[in-house]
Amino acid sequence: MEVPTSINLRIGQKYVLRLKGLGSAGYTWNYNVDGNDKVVSISREMAGRPTTAPAGGPPPDTYSLDYLFTIQAHEPGRVLIHFFQHRLWEKDKPPLKEHVLEIHVD
Asked: I need a labelling partner for 56 at 20 to 30 A (CA). Which of 11, 21, 37, 78 fits?
């Protein structure tokens, strides 16, 4: 899965970014916006629903669902979105993965 590092959007246009999940190991994806936070809005959801495992069995292969971030352009400008995959309880550890996406809105 190739993840872009830069995209161009027009006002009103949406883009969905898919990031590989690792929920079975306790990791979640979050983000910070660097720049004018009125340029875009971002929503986050899981790609699908988790599969339930039989009692006492190993987690199913689809237990770690991908994250979908919907980015909608609202006004002209440029922002950087810093995505980071981490465990919420590990405050002093660096993220497992990071990705920076540059957004240009015309």
From this structure: 21
